[in-house]
Amino acid sequence: MSVEGLPVLVHEKVWTNRAKYEDAEMKYYEMLAKQRSGSSMGSLASEIAKARESLQQSLTLADTRAAQFSKEAEDRIGKLENTVQLLMKRVGELEAQLAKVSISGIATSTVSTQSTSEGGKKEEEEDDIDLFGSDDEEDAEAERIKEERLAAYAAKKSKKPALIAKSNVILDVKPWDDETDMAEMEKQVRSIQCDGLLWGAAKLVPLAYGIKKLQISSVVEDDKVSVDWLQEQIEAFEELVQSVDIAAFNKI
Asked: What Gene3D superfamilies does this protein's entry cite (predicted)?
């Protein structure tokens, strides 16, 4: 190469130490990888240590609770045993009292039976001594009292007024036409009088075509006045009355 060509080489980009730089770069990345690996291992060890500590605490807490439960169970069992002993003692006392009551009841029953037997014997002896019994006198006295009560009841019943059966009867009295004198008709109807008949209110009720009927109420004693007889008496006024119907009939 001539000296004249050197200026040209000066302007070309040539990396004469490339291998050195590549080796340095490789060492740098290896160092970073080692640091990262060490950091990960340290973190994993820390997590394992924490897990072991937590497990140890859980086991300790479980042992403590088991001990407490065992103590509570022992206390409850002791209380139950004491209660059972008290109940057994009470049952024994009740059985003893029941036995005393049974013995007392048997003794009382025996005494009562003896007293009844003695009383029966005494009454039998008295009955044997009473040769002239008083049964006849007692029967006569009872019969007299019975007759007096029957007589008093009959007298009291006779003083009560007898119940009279009555009925409320409403009659419809129909005229021949609209020219019939309705006032005269009512007057004639009320003229019918007898024992057990009582006339009540009356009114005119429209019938048809300007014709009105006389509706009159009455109270009759069933044993003294017949409704059929009353209808016949009203229909006897032939000049005024066409017909008579029963509008209502009610027992009082």
From this structure: 3.30.70.60
